[in-house]
Amino acid sequence: MQVVVVGGGPVGLMVACELRLSGVETVVLERLTEVDQRAKAGAIQGRGVEALDRRGLGDRLRALGGEQLRQFVERLRANGLRGHFAGMWVLRESDYGEERMLPVPQQALEAVLAERAAELGVEVRRGQVLHGWEQDADGVTLTLQGPDSDEPYELRADWLVGADGGRSTVRKGGSFAFPGTDGVITGYQAIADIDDPEFLPRGWNRTATGFAVNGPTPGRLLLVEFDGPPADRDAPVTVEEFQGALRRISGADVTVHSVSSVTRFTDNARQADTYREGRVLLAGDAAHIHSPFGGQGLNLGLGDAVNLGWKLALVARGRAPEALLDTYTAERHPVAERVLDNTRAQVALMRPGPHTDALRGIFTKLLEQDDANRWLTDLMGGNDLRYDFGAKTDLIGRFCPDLEVGTADGPVRLAELQRSGRGQVLVFDADERWGETAAGWADRVDVTYGTCADAPSGALLVRPDGFAAWTAESEEPLADALTRWFGPAVR
Ligand SMILES: Cc1cc2nc3c(=O)[nH]c(=O)nc-3n(C[C@H](O)[C@H](O)[C@H](O)COP(=O)(O)OP(=O)(O)OC[C@H]3O[C@@H](n4cnc5c(N)ncnc54)[C@H](O)[C@@H]3O)c2cc1C
């Protein structure tokens, strides 16, 4: 097998789709026999939405409904808002165009990605538990257990991607360091049946003892207490435990009849020091964990997936040198670092007590300043992300807008061109030399000639993950940029 992805959550499925799209034999091994139905993400935002749109998956997700969440988002927009920070609903518009939000639950995303994986020919094997791995110069040997036998078995792969969540066996099996901060909260998210559902106002309620979020869909409750992390993360959450937390936070003698889809979480904020150890790579929660405030986990994990997929595919197919994989940690580690920090800041701003009240007051005033508000909005959506490619041109290293290119065959959007998962050279000055240069990479890169009102002059190289890698104004020749990102030319 060329690549084994351990973990069939959203990030593992997305990585597998990316690999397969680029022609790599890929299998996903997932411990659970069925999709995890517990409530996790309720929406996907920011660059994560664009990553899905660039592969033509956004429309499938939009068609899936999520009507109540959609209405909630529309109500926010009608009030000029797009999000919250630490439960303060103050964030307004972005500097980078309309903020994107897909109001679909995580399970819907996983279903769409599983469907896409099947279409592309990715095999997803469920009920397979990874126990450990060892690597040598040529590949990785995984030790696994299937659902029908107590006997472990071995599987050999050229490359291993650990997308197996926050407690990643892949990460723990290597010498990855996982530094960060311990949790200080115990949180719950559940769909709860309560005797008086109206006892708690809809939205975010900050009380003298914690936070209780009622909604946005009926029955959905998120509770946070600041008395340390849970004693036992793995123990099932009972109705009594959930009711106890709800009573302590709300101060009301409310009765909870049942809870479903329940998760217990804390705010450990940790990050692997490197996302690559030889032939083993980490992505998503396996590489970084943090509290769910601000709904950033999927955005971050999908960003990892689309950054890693095409690079690993080129290396696994022998087209690009292994050094290309080192750009994965270099580009993605700082992105997660920012998310970890902003979630820590949110926990600090959510604590009960008069000192935090004062801090929230000052913070709210600061966010009345347009510049500060936009800066925080862009931080939360990852909109202002710019990878350091060592270039002076501002566009290089940034996510390329969805340009409309007028070609001889009619208009085409960059997002449509990118469905192939290949690199894109867009030529706007009709100079055929750009196409002649790129011909050496015809197995990895497409060339499109056309016009575009918003485009930089000359020509533009866009990586498969949508980031601008070169323009005709760059000091670097196009052939060097193509070699850097896609390996040597094939003539
Ligand atoms: C309460 C809560 C609310 C959240 N809300 C949001 C939100 O609104 N927006 C947002 O973007 N994010 C949110 N998140 C975060 C989001 O759910 C995660 O970031 C996301 O699930 C990460 O995806 P992943 O694929 O990396 O990991 P996971 O979803 O954890 O998937 C990992 C997979 O690996 C499998 N696995 C683990 N170990 C093994 C093994 N040894 N062998 C085989 N398989 C294995 C697991 O069964 C699992 O299916 C929330 C999280 C929580 C807990």
Helix content: 25-40%
- Cα(first) to Cα(last) distance is 28 Å
- Secondary-structure-based class equals alpha+beta
CATH superfamily of the largest domain: FAD/NAD(P)-binding domain
For the sheet with most strands, the description reads:
6 strands, mixed
Low-confidence stretches are none
Tell me the number of helical segments per DSSP (H or I, 4 or more residues long).
Answer: 14
**Strands of the largest sheet, in order across it?**
7-2-1-11-20-19
CATH class of the largest domain: Alpha Beta
| Structural domain tally | 3
Q: Indicate the overall shape.
A: globular
The CATH topology assignment of the largest domain is: FAD/NAD(P)-binding domain
How many strand elements? 27
Rg on CA atoms, Å:
23 Å
The appropriate CATH architecture of the largest domain is 3-Layer(bba) Sandwich
What percentage of the residues does DSSP assign to strands (E)?
A: 15-25%
What ligands does this structure carry?
flavin-adenine dinucleotide
Residue-averaged pLDDT, rounded? 94
Structure description:
The chain is α+β, with helices and mostly antiparallel strands and 491 residues long. The chain folds into three domains: 3-179 and 270-381, FAD/NAD(P)-binding domain (3-Layer(bba) Sandwich), CATH 3.50.50; 185-266, Alpha-Beta Plaits (2-Layer Sandwich); 404-486, Glutaredoxin. It is 33% helix and 24% strand. The protein has 14 helices and 27 strands. The strands form eight sheets. A six-stranded mixed β-sheet has the order 7-2-1-11-20-19. It has a five-stranded antiparallel β-sheet with strand order 14-15-16-13-17, with helices on one face. Helix 8 packs antiparallel against helix 9 (323-350). The longest helix is centred in the last third of the chain and has 28 residues, at 323-350. The protein binds flavin-adenine dinucleotide. Its cofactor is FAD. One of its GO terms (molecular function) is monooxygenase activity. Residues 2-343 form the FAD-binding domain.
